[in-house]
């Protein structure tokens, strides 16, 4: 049986697509602060999947992913419902800032929200109760924080069978498993029976076409896994590593302030002892060499070359020998 999607203020019947500007707060002028929402309710029965982006206002890759799924894909044969939320943090997006501009609140620590709480919690509540909790599954798109870049990977609590199903179906080489900090959309939705995973790709403030295309393949693969589209197969990425709390992984941090010359890109494999980067200053000739403490994969690396002591340089995760060999054999995938 097909189902009508209902939210506070409206309903979308099977076979209908609705483009909504949904009020989540008000500006100082008393005008509505609204988020764009596209709901595509298929004519055939199936699960309800949300796709969300820009919960951090300067993370743009996901906006383009959700926009293309909502407005450029043909959904004539859709089974179930897609809830497309391309820009969750509209005030941050307009200001091109990561956080909600007032008091720098992190919308992604404010879920599931509270309708009589702070302004961030009220926004979170409007989003969560209307467009997240009614869904069966969710994908939330992020990029690295400004000044760094991530290879395409999924973050999910693989101890939750449904979250694991989404994470594997997305078809990325790397899955980092944790239940996530409290207040994040991923964790709170998963705890509230809407299993959700985070997809990380690239850097803030730009569109990165190859990463966006790879993520669109992942969305298609998830929809195939959930039976929402007939045409596409579930994607196998060639090799996969699932990194959990017991695995060796580290953010390598600068021990000196200065200018970083980075010798590797996201997705590179480095051997123990390999030179990852050097830190110099404009005033002296000697430099600090940073070496890989173990053999592993660079999931994230610095883009902005300026560091204080303690700033992150790269996110290195250990790989076992068979995975390292498989990864080396398919470098093109990780280099996207
Ligand atoms: Zn983010």
UniProtKB/TrEMBL annotation:
InterPro entries: AstE_AspA_cat, N-alpha-Ac-DABA-like, N-alpha-Ac-DABA_deacetylase. Pfam families: AstE_AspA_cat. GO terms for molecular function: hydrolase activity, acting on carbon-nitrogen (but not peptide) bonds, in linear amides; hydrolase activity, acting on ester bonds; metal ion binding. Residues 45-225 form the Succinylglutamate desuccinylase/Aspartoacylase catalytic domain. CDD domains: M14_ASTE_ASPA-like (cd06251). Keywords: Hydrolase, Metal-binding, Zinc. Its cofactor is Zn(2+). The keyword Metal-binding applies. PANTHER family: BLL3975 PROTEIN. This is AstE domain protein.
